[in-house]
Amino acid sequence: MTDKTHQEMLRKYAEAIVKVGLNIRAGQRLIINNMAVRGVPHQFAPLVREVAKAAYGAGAKYVEVIWGDEEMMRLRAQHAPRDSFDEYPTHMVDAVMGMINNGDALLSIAGTNPDLLGGLDPEIVGMMQTRHLNAASKISERVTTNAINWCVVAAAGEEWAKKIFPDLSVEKAQEKLWQAIFETTRIDQPDPIAAWEKHILFLRERARYLQSKQFTALHYTAPGTDFTLGLPSGHQWISAQSMAQNGVAFTANMPTEEVFTLPDRNRADGVVSSTFPLSYGGTLIEDFQVTFENGRIVKVNAKKGEAALQKLVDTDEGSHRLGEVALVPASSPIAKRGHLFYSTLFDENASCHIAIGRAYRFTLTGGEELNDEEFIAAGGNVSLNHVDFMIGSPQMDIDGVHKDGTHEPVMRQGEWAFKL
Ligand code: ZN
Ligand code: ZN
Fold first, then answer.
1. Could you tell me the distance, in angstroms and rounded to a whole number, from the CA of residue 355 to the centre of ligand 2?
2. Residue 282: what pLDDT?
3. In this predicted model, what pLDDT tens digit does every residue of 43-59 receive, in sequence order?
4. CA 340 remoteness from chain centre
5. Angle at Cα 352 formed by Cα 374 and Cα 179, nearest 5°?
6. What sign does the CA torsion over 41, 46, 47, 52 have?
7. pTM of this prediction?
8. What is the CA(388)–ligand 1 centre distance, in A?
9. What is the Å distance from ligand 2's center to 327 Cα?
10. How far is the CA of 354 from the centre of ligand 2 (A)?
């Protein structure tokens, strides 16, 4: 790709981010950030500047960027005094909270080094992460209840690209990753905005169909999988577009291929086999099975990384149970690429998946108003974790189960089985 073509693709990507992802309103302000490394790395500046141009073009009043530096996190862990990791300047959190309280839009740009904190003292890394998660929890709370229009997108960071394509040079790896980003976010199509409108409608129709069916359970069959998962009453099927409390319809993830809801934390029975490796806490867990009884994980086994998987499950009571069920066709454009991205934004959109741990409040009608006990009583799950793992394949059949016990096809051989 020539520099000129790349710049033009960035421009189209930025336009889709502003119009489809954030759906910026005239007069709104925009804040651009990366929470994981406390600011957007300078290597993403070309994309940031295109987004700023597109945002002003759409009538944004002001665009603020919180810049960061990945290396600063690493060198702090290596060099700062051991008793200093409780230090946490709050200006970044205050800035983001100030803008959220003002009803501004929030863009997060992912794509930093997935191994940034690899090989460091796990205790120090743990202290840094815990301090950060605690300080930033008020932001996550406002964002996950859709207080404002927000969006997460990716940029092809150097180290991330090298992680996915280790055999290529940095330049070639980044070029290949940008191509993957542009294709999976439909930016390579003649009219990306129209392509997104069609895609959002496609997903919404499927979510509406599933909603109208009011299934009480889903039954999964595939090689190594025979599994029934209950759906609580009041479950809401969600897809690409959401409505923010500030009244703006936005698309929180680009790409997105999933239609999802919450399972009943007390109703999962049988065995489910993974179809992709799971990257968790720096370990790759491969070829694993999870066995459930009455919603609870009673056994895990894995060809590789079994100890890491058991550790994840043993985090708390909620991580013995499920918090998300998502349907994604096996022909998803992300699955077709045939490799892991080491990024949930991409990997969870490659396949049907379920998540160990916490359920999203907005997947249950009225869920945002419930406290933990009430949410649990309604079938929702509460945990420190939310870890998606992939179970879909072209061999998978899924039936919807009605209250009277009758079944009807939802997916056959990994694809949607109903016509609308
Ligand atoms: Zn998901
Ligand atoms: Zn998830």
1. 6
2. 67
3. 999 999 999 999 999 99
4. 14
5. 120
6. positive
7. 0.91
8. 7
9. 11
10. 7
